[in-house]
Prior knowledge:
With 122 residues, this protein is mostly helical.
Amino acid sequence: xxxxxxxxxxxxxxxxxxxxxxxxxxxxxxxxxxxxxxxxxxxxxxxxxxxxxxxxxxxxxxxxxxxxxxxxxxxxxxxxxxxxxxxxxxxxxxxxxxxxxxxxxxxxxxxxxxxxxxxxxx
Length: 122
């Protein structure tokens, strides 16, 4: 029974991460509507959005599970990134991972693991 609840908390963390991502993307789209978009700032903002979303989801999940923080954070980051890339494939971008994409994946895994450890100690 406990493992089922743990999986539920991880899924809830991923869903919360996506809602945070959606909210931050809406804010950014409003900002870029009134200003000229800059590709360099866009890429930095998307990396920051990914990091913040994974951090929030990992801390939320670990606060409820209360054990194996690094593993929960890592699993959440993997699920988040896989779903993001599946959405990209569905939207017609194809399954191409650039060096920027690899950096984003590595950062998400690193942030997820550290956030899981942080969430245990909070």
